[in-house]
Amino acid sequence: MRRGRLTGARWCTSLGAQPLAGPSLAKLQAVCPQLATDVGAAGGTSYCCTEEQLDQLQKQIQVASIFLVGCPACNHNFKHFFCLLTCSPDQAAFANVTAAQTANDTGASNAVAEMDYYVAAAFGERFYNSCKDVVYPVMNQKAMTFVGGGAKDYQEWFDFIGLLKDKRFPPVGSPFQMNFPPGPPPEGISPLNSSIPSCGEGALACSCGDCPSAPGCEPPPPPPPPAPAGCPAVGTTSLSCTDVSLAALYVGLLACLPLVVRQSRQQLAESEARRSEQQLQDDEPVAELEVGSSLPRRRSGGGGGGRPEGRLLWEASEAYSTAATAGSGAGKSRGEDGEAGDGSKDEEEEEEEELVEWPATEQLLRQWFFHQGLWCARRPRLVLALSLLAVGACALGLTRFTVMTDPQELWVGPGSQAAREKADYEAAFGPFYRITQLILTTTPAANSSQTTPSGLPAIVTDAHIRLLFDMQDAVDALVANPGGSEADRSSTLASSQKSSGSGIAGGGGGGGGSWNVTLADVCLKPMGADCATQSVLQYWCMSRESFEHGPPGVGVRVTPEFCFTHWSTQCRAAFGGPIDPHLVLGGFPTDSATFRNFSADATAFVVTYPINSHPENREAALAWEAAFVQLASTQLTAMAEGAGLRLSFSTERSVQDELARESTSDAPTVLLSYVVMLLYIAVALGRFPRSSDWRDLLVHSRAALGLGGVLIVAAAVLGALGLCSWAGMRSTLIIAEVIPFLALAVGVDNMMILAAALEQQPASHPLAHRVGLALAAVGPSITLAASCEVVAFSLGGLTSMPALRNFSICAALAVLLDFLLQVTAFVALLALDTRRLEQGRFDCWPWRRARGAPLYDSDFEGMYGGSAGAPLLGDSEADGVDEAQEEVEATFGHAFHAEQPDDSRYVGVSQALRTYMRRVHAPLLRRPAVKAAVLAVFGGIFLLSCACLPRLERGLEQSVALPRDSYLQHYYDDVFASLRVGPPVMFVVQDLNVSEAAPDVSRVCSVAGCDPDSLLNQIAAASRAPWSSRLASPAASWLDDFMTWASPEIPQCCRQFANGTRCPPPDQPPCSTDPDACNECTTCFAPGQMPGGRPGLQEFQDKLPWFLASQPSAACAKGGAGAYSDAIQRNASDPTGVAGLGSRGVVAASSFRASYVVLSRQSDFIGALRASRDFAAAASERLGLRVFPYSIFHIFFEQYLTIGGEALTLLGSACVAIFLICLAATGSPWSATLIILTLCMLLVDIMGAMHLMGIQLNAVSLVNLVMSLGIGVEFCAHLVHAFVEERGPSEDRAAAALGDVGAAVLSGITLTKIAGVAVLAFSRTRIFEIYYFRMYAALVLLGAAHGLILLPVLLAAFGPEELEHWRWKLQRHLRRGQPQRGDRQQRAVALPPQQQQLGSGEAEEGGLTEVQQQLLQAQWAEQQQQGAVLQPPPQLELEQGRPSGNAAAAADV
Which stretches does the entry tag as region Disordered (predicted)? Predict the structure, then answer.
């Protein structure tokens, strides 16, 4: 066989090349400039090709140039390679004909059928390297995918190039078989080894995007080294250095515990010794003490500050005596001898009362609450009526109540960066298209001949493809009725078509005032009349006939595997574009070592329906999506299950619909939770006598009071929602579900504390005064807790997340209203219910008595009589109470009466818990070993939680936010398991100046001649480092493609008629239908016509609209219609149709589409958003242009970029506010510090528990963390308040504080919430089960542990000093007049003159001792019993030291 080269039907024989001259030589010089130069330099003019062959070669090279023209070196080398193979005069030196055939045109038998070409490896490597990174921007793919079949080296590329077209399907390729044998050539053959330029050198150098190895191009950063496991410094691989440091700190803490035990034992011994000494002093008769004896005095507590001991209460005592004298009403007068004018007196035993010098703020609050309690108890009906009116006025705002369910509105504020970017993108390009998706996945029951590496059957079988055709037929036949008239339909479709540039095809219209839509009406059509459906069926143009029998006119069936490997060049979709198998197949391995082929390894079909998102199409799209969900959940699911497959699906509206359904799906569970808490409250508030009489149980039950308390909480929540609605705030699911629990936790705690305080008031006082004293006793601590909660939640209103902001504001209002109603309406209810109880009336039936007479004595009559405005429960005159005494007790008295109620006669939750606290819990915490264990356990939990904080994940899994039975649960599972492509990301550039004088074009483009660090080159470089950028591909660039489309290098793209109008490519009408119609068409620009080789402003203004209207085809695949229809901001008022181009010479906004890598976890999405934001910010600063990234998921994940800072700021500012409030309320920095320390430990421990329970940090959990601060204050504030008022050693004070309020806190918060939260474990929604049941349970249990276990231990060891106390010894005389039942009481104290004189001298020297005070008081009392009414001497000193000046202010009473 002779060596030669085929030329059509001939081949170049060994006789040599033939000379070319004239037009033929000129054509060769134009087509093959380097070959002409090389041959001409040697003086030759002979070539192995004809003019006809040159014409064919030119056409073929122009097709390839469409993909390669952006890189001049690659384009030149590709042309030169084929010029060498076709026209080189030395062809016989490197080519060998191995088979001949008969020519079709001439019938000659010497036509070449197969030929071997020998190419030097160095030439092949240099040629392949110059083209391997060239990007085809339209498809956002490497050009090698289209011109080389995705070749990985030069040998694969040559094999693809030389494959005979008859061996392909469709038959496109080489006219004969061209082989490129590897290895050494046979004898006599000299391999082709011409000189060609690299892509990064000389005048033909490519951009960095197409040639990243070029000099001056920044290489991609290497992959980051794996993070070192563990802590290398100590040689551990399982623990980080932080963990090791925390462990060392914990060991140091354990080493200090023996010191704690020793100190605790010393404190306990001192406490016992002091108690014994006090007992001896109490047992010693006072008469044996001498007045002048000097015994050491007891120092006062911390309330006295640095003031000198022994301050007299002369002014206050005189004021009390004066008030009692003035208020007696019996004409009493006092002479110089101090005897009373009225000799009729009732003698009472001497009474000793202990007063507390509260801080000034608390004194004012106690006075206020005392009068408020009196007023509410005396006029309960009026109070309840006013409360109802106030709540009703607030609740009227519910008429404007709306619920916010759109996730974008929930988590992103309108002023956030993501919201602004989304608004800017949609204003420029319109809304991103809506997505409806089907995922058909195999199960073990599926029938397939191949098994994938995952163990599941392969999805690619003829039967499964036919099933997919059946499903597609059902989808195509689906008809939805969005409502509206036929005229509305026509108007809507026309408007949408005009706006989108693609239109919506008409569907079947319905009469009767409605119209029907199908998929063809609502789908996205970027390139004509066909929907841009992404489906494996597009390989056969969505035609069952083509799948079964082959494309029309071919008659050969196309296999799936052929299309999977030739999708870029053959098997085009019905809408004209290629379909990447990665988009329509899923479940296959991503690593090359495991992946075999798509047919053998794919386990899922992925079908995506892009839906037109234009606002005019919204109603129709929503209706069709709703109908699609119904179809998919019934018919399509049944079809899939019948074939052993699983179907999952989603639409754009699915998440919002399922969230709306979620708000009602757990309503029964939440209602049951409230019922359980109500039942518990009713039982916990009551105390039942140890009697078998059922009537006693009905009387002592307080179900009505509990129901009233719950209704008050509900009223507070409704009032808060109404106020928020008045202000225009929209409610959320979090508000509806969380705030009632929060209000119940706070409200029930206050109810328990108020009820316990009322039980512990002296029974001798009338009910109204007991209520006033109870409110005065606990009102300040309730106010302290409520103030901290309101401020903490109010600070949450400063956050940018709408859901969190609305919740915080509404929660603050709910807590505030709950507090106001608790101290007014609930106080009135408590007075009414206590009155009912004392009268022996049935609970819930107060009009019936259990017995004929009341169970208790009562000073009140007419419980259910009288007018609403009149005092119902008596007044001060009728009560027979000394008002001055009550004022003093309210202002300076103890919060809880010294004589605790006798719990032995009753049974009930409160009694049992009180007994537990006093007899078990408090004594147990006094033991030194227990204290050490508490500190060790809580210290370990705290340090463990600190170690968990860096591991706390951010995000909210989509499956968690949805109901358990939602069809989206399976969809998200399949998305993360099957999808192999990442979401698209658009890099938007605003105000791109395209004039010649501006550098903006060079700063953005990526073709040859653009800046090496241009935006698109940087995106391409970032895509080569996906581990840091999260980008999977370079950006599709309309700018690059426009400049390529306008280039004379591909003359079939930009053409014009003689009259200057646009001429389409030769394969498009009218050129393809009428050969003579386009004879006069010429290229838009001749070579060298454009200055600098690129368009200027005038060229942009004239030809960019042509480019955007040009349809891509085989002759010119660079057309911008479809691919870039939405990539440039349009404006019909601009002369060019491009916003800003005709008027200002700028493109107002343009987007460049790239794609992320596969994102499967929340951290992947967050990392991708952060990486793209950082990239765009750096590019904007470097280029001087505004660049921002946009993707549909950005707006959902932006919150997680800042949620750590938001949480730190919100919780930190709340802690500071709580500290300042506690400091102002208690007057003790150390008390406020202990409260904040406990709250901070609680917060850290809850976050540690979140990590251990798999709870992520997001807006929902942050809401719960803020709520934990509020509830944590409830656990701490009441206990610290009770601690500072107690006397004695810290051990005793902590135990007494637990006995006073511990039971109320345990019952009001802990057990109530546990009862309600336990029900949430059975919720159908995972967000309830995870974020409410788990987190609430952790909050309640950890809060109770910190408040009732850790805090008492800290108070016993490091508690603040006690407040200053003093004792007031007096003789109370109650004058009872015959006509009046309730004369005022009179308190009179007297001392013989000789004692006054005796005391006078001693007072000047520093005052009397404690024992002397007791003796003087005893002698003073004896004088009182004898009828003497004298002023107390100024030397009469209070036992425990000096009160503050605020105590003297009681003289105003």
Answer: 272-310, 323-355, 480-509, 1377-1407, 1425-1453
Report the helix count and the strand count for the chain, using DSSP H and E.
56, 28
Mind listing the pLDDT tens digit for each residue in 999-1045? 899 999 988 888 888 999 899 889 988 989 999 988 989 998 899 88
Rounded to the nearest 5°, which phi and psi values hold at 300?
-75, 165
Estimate the crossing angle of helix 883-892 against helix 314-326, to 10 degrees: 150
Phi, psi of 1303 (to 5 degrees): -65, -40
| Rg of the chain on CA atoms, in Å | 45
The two structure tokens encoding residue 322: 């004066």
Buried b (16+ CB within 10 A) or exposed e, 1120-1133: bbbbbbbbbbbbee
CA–CA separation, 1433 and 1441 (whole Å): 16
CB atoms < 10 A from the CB of 1332, how many? 25
Give burial (CB, 10 Å; 0-12/13-18/19+) of 58: middle
**Residue 836 has which token pair?**
């009912």
Q: Are 537 and 472 in contact (CB under 8 A)?
A: yes
Q: Say what the pLDDT of residue 693 is.
A: 63
> 330: which 2 tokens?
């019996």
Other beta carbons within 10 Å of 213: 14
Going by DSSP bridges, is the β-strand pair 1031-1036/1062-1063 parallel, antiparallel, or unpaired?
A: unpaired
> 395 vs 388, 389, 399, 717, 802, CA distance in Å?
10, 10, 8, 9, 22
Task: Using pLDDT thresholds of 50, 70 and 90, give the confidence band for residue 141.
Answer: confident
Q: Across-strand partners of 841?
A: 849
Best CATH choice for the domain 373-400+666-848+858-882+896-950+1202-1358 from the list 3.10.20.580, 1.20.1640.10, 2.30.29.30, 1.50.40.10: 1.20.1640.10
**In this model, does residue 377 exceed pLDDT 80?**
yes
Give me the DSSP letters along 893-917: S-SS-SS---GGGEESHHHHHHHHI
Q: Annotate 189-198 with b (16+ C-beta within 10 A) or e (fewer).
A: bebbebebbb
- Rounded to a whole number, what is the largest CA-CA distance in the chain? 158
Domain extent listing, the chain: 6-204, 314-353+1369-1452, 373-400+666-848+858-882+896-950+1202-1358, 433-661, 984-1191
Report in angstroms the alpha-carbon separations of 423 from 106, 352, 839. Answer: 67, 74, 68
* Closest among 76, 134, 65 to 1006, alpha carbons compared: 134
Give dist(CA 8, CA 27) in Å, integer.
18
Q: Which two tokens stand for residue 1314?
A: 């546990």
Q: Can you name the residues that pair with 179 across neighbouring β-strands?
A: 116
Q: Which residues pair with 101 in a beta bridge?
A: 111
Tokens of 1290: 């810290």
Where would I find the beta strands (DSSP E) of 1042-1134? 1055-1056, 1062-1063, 1082-1083
> What tens digit of pLDDT does each residue of 1297-1334 get?
888 788 878 887 788 777 777 777 777 777 878 888 88
- Kindly list the strands in the beta sheet with 1062-1063, ordered across the sheet, starting from the edge strand earlier in the chain: 1062-1063, 1055-1056, 1082-1083
Residue 1118: closest CA among 1049, 1058, 1056, 1061: 1049
Residues near 1381 by Cβ (< 8 Å), separated by ≥ 6?
Answer: 878, 880
Q: Which helix (H) or strand (E) holds 18?
A: strand 18-19
CB 439 within 8 A of CB 606: yes
Total residues found in the chain within this entry: 1453
Do 47 and 88 contact (CB within 8 A), yes or no? yes
Q: What is the mean pLDDT of the chain?
A: 78
User: Which of 747, 438, 749, 730 is CA-nearest to residue 606?
Assistant: 438
Given pLDDT bands bounded at 50, 70 and 90, which one contains residue 22?
confident
Query: In this structure, what are the phi and psi dihedrals at residue 1213, rounded to the nearest 5 degrees?
Result: -65, -35
Q: Which helix (H) or strand (E) holds 399?
A: none
